[in-house]
Design a protein that fits this description.
The chain has 806 residues and is of the alpha/beta class. The chain is built from 22 helices and 30 strands. The strands form 7 sheets. Strands 3, 4, 5, 7 and 8 form a 5-stranded antiparallel beta sheet that branches. A hairpin with a 4-residue loop joins strand 29 and strand 30. Keywords: Membrane, Transmembrane, Transmembrane helix.
């Protein structure tokens, strides 16, 4: 048929001849495969499916060891290994069985690291099968379906010899249709510490149990007497809620012999939640917090957990020492914030937990140090720096004790890097957590077997472990405490232990500081903004009558601005700092001058009022208000170019301050009002307004003069009339006395004279005086009468707290 398809008269093409030969070979391939009994071309597809897995060193079946109990067995114990096997391939595995394999002891700590990196590598080292009845079999493993297993074997069946760490491998073997022979398809290796009897010389181990969180409180507080705190979010409530990270840290740490490393800011924040508090929500408003009982319960549980245990208090807010050393020391005031954070740590912990903490320790990020970090760390008074062995490295064949002097009376407490980093990464899967625990115990035992001398070892895990990481830590510490090669020791004792004379005491140079950590530091701009906020606070607090209501919350907020928790969260850190500075600016603007419009003077002198408004809850004092004339030749204030008056205003009130002015010429004069603090620093924005002096003409002066003259003449006339009337009355009194001495016979004559009418001229004079007086009383005000001044009649300042208009 192929040939019929070709053109007539043409021979078969080379391509077609190749196709016919290939087809013939393919047709005979099954027969050849049957004769040779080999899975040849028919298995090509299956082999391709497995090729990527074998190339990577992992099998087609994943083995997960979810638990190993006990973690460190002794003689007479039964070791139980449980987990799951999952067929990740596309073919069903038949004849599957799980076996335990015990390898030779691992003699060095680096050997443990190497094995941990290849824990599921098919090409890795294998051990002797325990075999026998200690095998679990499966009829088939369906693709994608996980199957559980559990094998229990007495410890004496594991053929463990001398003390040490043994490799324990869990291997899944089986066959597929593509590979029909029994082979290892998946493996998971872990570690089995073996120390059946008490060690002659045990290792003293210090495990740090950190209680650290981020910054949750703002500087803002309520205007009530209790200063209700405001929280940036409700995340802290989630952390201390049942099952939350901090709840687990407390419940898991209870009963463990550890040293609690606590950020006092965390305690202060939870303590604030036990009373009335506000939470800021997405739209910027606040809502009442509702987790008071939750906070009280967490603190009560923590108080029980730390009873009898050592507490090392970090500086308040857990400031980032490396960022401060590298980017903040040249910014004025940065080291003062670290000193303040250290000073308040003791009182905060003691007040809330009723335990006296140690404040001698500082803990740089990941224990990485250089000379500048050590200098900054000790500047606040601490003389012990928690570092790590991957920073302060030793060129020794064994692990020396943690404590060592590094000069200047400072002790470096060197945490073991292998054990400290054992619980990092994702430990949400049980298999990862189990491997971390066994690796930690393996490192601890191997370290103890290195020499016959007793040593002190410190473990400093990550600052904020997740729930799964904390659970793994607790499991490891619990196993270590019941083991036979280690005993617990607190941090202070570890720092006082005799140093190893061969240990390195030279602090690494600045160039040795990890670049990965340096990239995540707080920038210089962060410390500059903190310094700017502090400068504003310093100027603001001097005018307050109750400074602590502002200084304390802002001081603690600036401690939080330097927190280690901002590493890698640059945008959030900037937002937090901006929020603190913006809120302070709002408070500062609460004390200000009220704007004034143009003021008119219709005379040569007047009083000009300037109003100071205080929108704060508390009163302000130690302020001076200066009113300055920009044109003193036209308008003088207080007899000069300016005048100052002291200002005191109650909270929520305003006060009007009055200044005496005198005009020398007509026209406009610009006047500036400015508040100053007692030390001469300007406070707030100035208020500028114009004062217009109206024209005083000669005609007006003449009218005023005429009016004054009329008043003088009227007064003189009244005086002469009163004098004349007084003289007549005196004469009449004298005549009456003479008449009483005459004889009775002259009574009729005297009576006749008495009854005679008076002198018409005298009567007319009196009537004229009375009429003139009444006319003056009823007369209307004349245009020539003097006009009142433009200012208030009283020139005294208004009382404190008076509300006034411009």
């Amino acid at each position: 048929m192929a040939e019929a398809a070709d053109f007539q008269g043409a021979s078969a093409s080379p391509a077609r001849r190749w196709l016919r030969r290939t087809g013939a070979l393919l047709a005979g391939a099954p027969l050849l495969a049957g004769l040779l009994q080999l899975p040849a071309a028919a298995t090509a597809e299956a082999a391709g499916q497995e090729s990527s897995q074998t190339a990577a060193g992992t099998g087609s079946v994943s083995v997960a060891v979810n638990s190993l109990s006990p973690s460190a067995p002794s003689e007479g114990d039964t070791v139980t290994v449980s987990g799951t096997v999952t067929n990740n391939g596309k073919q069903t595995v038949t004849g599957a069985h799980v076996d335990l394999q015990v390898g030779p002891p691992l003699g060095t700590r680096s050997a443990i690291d190497t094995l941990a990196k290849k824990s599921d590598d098919l090409q890795g080292p294998s051990g002797e099968k325990v075999g026998g009845k200690y095998t679990e079999k499966f009829s088939a493993l369906t693709p994608g379906v996980a199957q559980p297993f559990s094998i229990s074997v007495p410890a004496d069946k594991l053929d463990l010899g001398r003390d040490g760490v043994y490799q324990l491998a869990v291997a899944l073997s089986g066959e597929t249709t593509a590979q029909p022979w029994d082979q290892v398809l998946g493996v998971q290796r872990t570690f089995l510490p073996w120390q059946p009897e008490e060690a002659g010389t045990s290792t003293k181990t210090t495990f740090l149990w950190p209680l650290v969180s981020g910054a949750h409180m703002a500087a803002e507080t309520g205007s009530n007497e209790q200063q209700t705190p405001v929280f940036r979010d409700d995340e802290l409530a989630q952390e201390i809620a049942p099952g939350g990270r901090l709840d687990q840290m407390v419940s898991l740490g209870k009963g463990l012999d550890v040293t609690w490393v606590i950020d006092p800011d965390l305690l202060a924040s939870v303590d604030a939640m036990t009373r009335s508090y506000q939470v800021r929500v997405a739209d910027g408003t606040t809502t009442p917090g509702k987790n008071q009982e939750l906070a009280k319960h967490w603190l009560a549980e923590l108080q029980q957990a730390v009873t009898g245990e050592e507490i090392a208090a970090l500086p308040f807010g857990d400031p980032d020492l490396a960022s401060l050393a590298h980017n903040g020391t040249n910014v004025t005031g940065s080291l003062n914030h670290l000193k303040e954070a250290t000073d308040v740590a003791d009182d905060t912990v003691n007040t809330i937990l009723h335990v006296k903490p140690s404040t001698d320790f500082v803990w740089p990020v990941d224990g990485a140090i250089d000379p500048s970090i050590v200098k900054v760390a000790t500047s606040a008074g601490a003389d012990k720096v928690i570092t790590r062995s991957d920073s302060l490295q030793d060129n020794l064949s064994y692990t020396p004790s943690a404590a060592r002097p590094i000069g200047g009376g400072t002790t470096a407490v060197v945490a073991d890097s292998r054990m400290s980093t054992a619980f990092q990464g994702d430990l949400t899967k049980a298999s990862a957590s189990t491997l971390a625990v066994q690796r930690f115990l393996a490192q601890s035992l191997t370290l103890g077997l290195q020499t016959g001398k007793q040593r002190s070892v410190v473990v400093a895990p990550q600052r904020m472990p997740s729930v799964s990481q904390a659970q793994a830590m607790a499991e490891a510490v619990g196993a270590l405490q019941v083991g036979n090669w280690s005993e617990s020791q607190d941090l202070t004792a570890a720092a006082k232990a005799k140093p190893d004379p061969s240990a390195n005491t030279k602090v690494p140079s600045a160039s040795a500081y990890p670049s990965s950590l340096r990239r995540r530091e707080l920038p210089r701009a962060a410390f500059e903004q903190i310094a700017r906020t502090q400068a504003k606070l310093d100027k603001f607090q001097v005018i307050l009558t109750r400074q602590s209501r502002v200084v304390t919350p802002f001081g603690r907020a600036m401690n939080r601005e330097m927190s280690t928790s901002w590493r890698g969260r640059g945008v959030a850190a900037v937002g937090y700092r901006d929020g603190i500075e913006s809120y302070l600016n709002g408070l500062i603007d609460g004390v200000k001058l009220i704007q004034k419009s143009e003021t008119k003077l219709s005379g040569r002198s007047a009083m000009i009022p300037v109003t100071v408004q205080n929108n704060l809850v508390q009163g302000v004092e130690h302020l001076e208000l200066r009113l300055t004339s920009k044109n003193p030749t036209r308008l003088k204030i207080g007899g000069d170019a300016y005048e100052e008056q002291r200002v005191t205003v109650n909270g929520g009130h305003a006060q009007s301050v009055k200044f005496t002015t005198s005009a020398n010429a007509n026209g406009r004069a610009e006047v500036v009002a400015q508040l100053y603090t007692e030390d001469g620093q300007k406070y707030g924005a100035p208020v500028t307004f114009d004062v217009r002096v109206t024209e005083v003409t000669p005609t007006v002066m003449l009218v005023i003069g005429g009016g004054v003259l009329l008043l003088v003449l009227a007064g003189f006339r009244m005086y002469t009339h009163r004098k004349r009337a007084a003289a007549r009355e005196a004469a009449e009194d004298e005549a009456a006395e003479d008449e009483t001495t005459e004889a009775d016979d002259e009574v009729d004559e005297s009576q006749g004279r008495a009854d005679a009418p008076r002198n018409p001229e005298d009567s007319d004079a009196r009537l004229e005086e009375e009429s003139e007086a009444e006319s003056r009383a009823d007369a209307p005000e004349q245009p020539s009468d003097p006009a009142p001044d433009t200012a208030a009649e009283s020139a005294d300042p208004s009382g404190t707290g008076e509300r006034v208009d411009r």
